[in-house]
Amino acid sequence: MTEESPDAPPTSEGVAAPGTRQQRGRKRRAEILQGARKLFAQRGFRGTSLAMLAEEIGITDAGLLYHFPTKNALLLAVLEETDQEQETRMAGDLDTADASYIASWAEFGQVLEDDPVLTALDVLMSAEHLETTSDFNEYFRRRYDTFRNRLVRSFEAGRAAGVYRNDFDPHTEAVLMLATLDGLRLQWLLSDGRISMADAMRYFIRHMEDRIRA
């Protein structure tokens, strides 16, 4: 089986329009990312080879490497895509620092339940790359920093607007929110969904806001 790149030379059937090649390339890239997400979630990064990925997607090794030159590059693209999907579902502008961002976290558990492959992938990848020598350790560190900083800014903005009281520590509350969601993801996966992330996260956010509300 051969893999035709978006820039393949014209065939006897004629020359494909540039737009058609680009569309075909985008479609193939999306298929690769979807297949890689599934295999990485099932087998982990270390347990997934490029040959396995190519077979899952239905292309040659060379075709896979045309789009992603290394397995590291492919994993990074998968992680970035899944982060964007989560952010799109959470709220419109996640850098808007106000109390509505805090409230939106009540639905984060439901977002994760709706995509079990993504949730399994995230837990497995972060666990596999805890060691500081990992190429992706810095990626996960930056992501945690980004979420913590957004939450802290939103707590502070809510306090300045009089929505929240002054006698709480925004940084500690942000750490607790992240820890709660992480713990719920793991329990949900290990209980085969019997423990509901959606219900537990809604409960946690509701009572947390009751506790700090002005």
Summarize the structure.
With 214 residues, this protein is mainly α.
Keywords:
214 residues, mainly alpha, Arc Repressor Mutant, subunit A, Tetracycline Repressor, domain 2, 2 domains, 69% helix, 0% strand, elongated, disordered N terminus
Count of helix runs: 10
Assign a percent range to the helix content.
55-70%
Domain count: the total is 2
Question: What is the mean pLDDT?
Answer: 82
The structure class reads mainly alpha
CATH class of the largest domain: Mainly Alpha
Principal-axes shape call: elongated
What is the succession of H and E elements? Answer: HHHHHHHHHH
Strand content is under 5%
Assign the CATH architecture of the largest domain: Orthogonal Bundle
Number of strands: 0
Q: What would the CATH topology of the largest domain be? A: Tetracycline Repressor, domain 2
Strand count, sense and barrel status of the largest sheet are: none
Which stretches are low in confidence, meaning pLDDT under 50 for 5 or more residues running? 1-14
Roughly how many Å is the radius of gyration?
Answer: 21 Å
State the end-to-end CA separation.
65 Å
